[in-house]
Amino acid sequence: MKNKKMKIARIESDVSQEQLADLVGVTRQTISLIESGNYNPTLKLCKDICKALNKTLNDLFWEE
Amino acid sequence: MKNKKMKIARIESDVSQEQLADLVGVTRQTISLIESGNYNPTLKLCKDICKALNKTLNDLFWEE
DNA sequence: TCATTATGCAATTTATATTTGACACTATGT
DNA sequence: ACATAGTGTCAAATATAAATTGCATAATGA
């Protein structure tokens, strides 16, 4: 259950895990864990990531 | 910064805070805190609440 | 009046998200 | 061959979400 949507959005925005981590104020490991799946981030972090990548919650974290 | 969307969706579905808490497997206090705002729930809990109320993440937790 | 349901809030404890520091591997370029 | 950027992952510590318990209030019905 990897989060491919987020990884793709990040690569489309041309930012590394470390750059995204800096943008949202967490560590690189946290970004890596979220993309790797099996992780349960907080809502605020999800929102911050969405804003940094110009996406919405549904875009990156919702599956029908 | 209250979460009115969630409270409205819950009332539309005719469930109490306690019933919603049971549906998603948390305590009534956690639901109360989320609706009161100033709280930062986990993504999994947000998703579970959305499913219980037949809404999406953007419906309840995203503001433009 | 009395009981019940629904809600808000606060203190303390428990579970877990996140940090920190480290080591490893794979490109890519010099 | 060497350096560097990007990523995956692990163990231990810290920060905070969530649980637990309890008390208070308003609304409703018997």
Report on this model:
- The structure is a homodimer of 64-residue chains.
- In chain A, 64% of the residues lie in helices and 0% in strands.
- Chain A starts with a helix and ends with a helix.
- Chain A has helices at 4-12, 17-24, 28-36, 43-52, 57-61.
- With 64 residues, the first copy, chain A, is mostly helical.
- The first copy, chain A, has a single domain, classed as 434 Repressor (Amino-terminal Domain) (Orthogonal Bundle).
- Chain A has five helices and no strands.
- Chain A binds chain B through residues 40-44, 46-47, 50, 56-58, 61-62, and chain B through 40-44, 46-47, 50, 56-58, 61-62.
- The structure holds a DNA duplex (30 and 30 nucleotides).
Report the biggest beta sheet of chain A as strand number plus sense, adding barrel if it closes. Answer: none
Count of extended strands of chain A: 0
Tell me, briefly, the overall form of chain A: globular
Mean of residue pLDDT values of chain A: 95
Query: What count of helical segments of chain A does DSSP give?
Result: 5
Oligomer: homodimer
